[in-house]
């Protein structure tokens, strides 16, 4: 394709509506799974803070301002979520070794251990679900999902 919008046809409209329905189901199930996994990390952890914890698990230690920039969320939201994660002993603020005035956010040992356990279980569940899928289907789905994520 050349990147130009495609004029909708009956088939294309039906396909788009089917995709929209399936994405709606997927997002609902993903939210439900996130709530369940969040509770396994800590019974008082909500889905939004769980999402931030996942992100911090990939990038920490990091300045809170960098988290704002990477996520696109506003500073007050990130600040509130980090404070909540600190209350639950899942993250901590430490001195930046390159700038003594700055603080970095990183997972605590407890936070890292609990997140690793949940991620490992989540990965095993996904492997079990995809076990019957041909590798080519997994590759195609991953490629198309990546394209959708980039375009969003």
Automatic annotation (TrEMBL):
<keyword id="KW-0238">DNA-binding</keyword>
<feature type="domain" description="HTH marR-type">
    <location>
        <begin position="16"/>
        <end position="150"/>
    </location>
</feature>
<keyword id="KW-0804">Transcription</keyword>
<dbReference type="InterPro" id="IPR036388">
    <property type="entry name" value="WH-like_DNA-bd_sf"/>
</dbReference>
<keyword id="KW-0805">Transcription regulation</keyword>
<dbReference type="InterPro" id="IPR011991">
    <property type="entry name" value="ArsR-like_HTH"/>
</dbReference>
<dbReference type="InterPro" id="IPR000835">
    <property type="entry name" value="HTH_MarR-typ"/>
</dbReference>
<protein>
    <submittedName>
        <fullName>Manganese transport regulator MntR</fullName>
    </submittedName>
</protein>
<dbReference type="Pfam" id="PF12802">
    <property type="entry name" value="MarR_2"/>
</dbReference>
<dbReference type="InterPro" id="IPR036390">
    <property type="entry name" value="WH_DNA-bd_sf"/>
</dbReference>
<dbReference type="InterPro" id="IPR023187">
    <property type="entry name" value="Tscrpt_reg_MarR-type_CS"/>
</dbReference>
<dbReference type="InterPro" id="IPR039422">
    <property type="entry name" value="MarR/SlyA-like"/>
</dbReference>
């Amino acid at each position: 394709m050349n990147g130009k919008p495609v004029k909708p046809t009956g088939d294309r409209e039906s396909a788009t509506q089917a995709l929209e329905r399936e994405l709606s189901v997927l997002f609902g199930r993903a939210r439900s799974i996130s709530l369940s996994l969040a509770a396994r990390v800590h019974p008082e952890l909500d889905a939004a803070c769980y999402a931030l914890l996942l992100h911090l698990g990939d990038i920490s230690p990091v300045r809170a301002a960098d988290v704002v920039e990477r996520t696109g969320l506003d500073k007050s939201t990130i600040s509130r979520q980090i404070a909540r994660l600190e209350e639950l002993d899942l993250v901590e603020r430490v001195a930046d070794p390159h700038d003594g005035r700055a603080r970095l956010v990183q997972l605590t040992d407890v936070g890292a251990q609990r997140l690793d356990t949940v991620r490992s279980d989540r990965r095993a569940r996904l492997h079990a679900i995809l076990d019957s899928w041909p590798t080519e289907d997994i590759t195609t789905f991953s490629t198309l999902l990546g394209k959708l994520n980039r375009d969003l």
